[in-house]
Write a structure and sequence with these properties.
Strands 2-1-3 form a 3-stranded parallel beta sheet. The protein has helices at residues 2-16, 35-49, 63-72, 82-90, 143-154, and strands spanning 22-27, 53-58, 77-78, 134-136, 163-165. Helices cover 35% and strands 12% of the residues. The protein has 172 residues and is of the alpha/beta class. The chain folds into 2 domains: 20-95, Periplasmic binding protein-like II (D-Maltodextrin-Binding Protein, domain 2, 3-Layer(aba) Sandwich), CATH 3.40.190; 113-172, 3-Layer(aba) Sandwich (D-Maltodextrin-Binding Protein, domain 2). The N and C termini lie far apart (71 Å). 26% of the residues are buried.
């Protein structure tokens, strides 16, 4: 009888415990970029304010990789550049033939301006002056690289005109 009481008590205590937390994976980017700290902030807000949810910011290759992670169900939320999300959703640009229709935009997190920066003493005064130079275009397959390619090509400069350096934010 005593053993039955302990068994019943243990069962009741186990039933009173909260169900295991729903795990959420937030695909961000490299630790040197803006996506990782933003994703970390989202994870912290979810963990502190949504009962039954446990979120983790995951280090990734950023926008392009994040779309693939979402498509495969390997991430629940992802930070992605708007133009990368658009190309993935419509199957255009670098996502030609790889359309990802089953996604939805949840929020615009921050305005994202593209900036081209060089040293003040450089002889680079325009995009055309990048010819023959080494140019950091972003991590391989990143949304930053998609932006760089589109911006350069819109100004008549192709990867063949300079030496592309596919560097992440820390390396650049």
């Amino acid at each position: 009888m005593k053993k039955l009481k302990y068994t019943v008590a243990a069962t009741m205590m186990a039933a009173a415990l909260p169900a295991s937390a729903q795990q959420l994976s937030i695909a961000t980017g490299g630790t040197g970029g803006v996506y990782y700290p933003i994703g970390g902030g989202f994870a912290e807000m979810i963990n502190n304010h949504i009962d039954g949810a446990q979120a983790t910011a995951e280090v990734t290759g950023a926008s392009v990789e994040n779309m693939g992670l979402i498509m495969r169900g390997d991430a629940d939320l992802a930070l992605v550049l708007a133009d990368t999300a658009y190309q993935a959703y419509t199957g255009t640009g670098d996502f030609d033939g790889r359309q990802i229709e089953n996604t939805r935009a949840l929020a615009s997190v921050y305005p994202n301006a593209v900036q081209l920066v060089t040293l003040a003493e450089s002889d680079i005064q325009s995009i055309a002056d990048l010819a023959g130079k080494r140019v950091s275009v972003g991590a391989p397959g990143s949304g930053t690289e998609l932006n760089a390619r589109a911006l350069l090509e819109a100004n008549g400069v192709n990867y063949e005109d300079f030496t592309p350096q596919r560097l992440n934010f820390n390396e650049t």
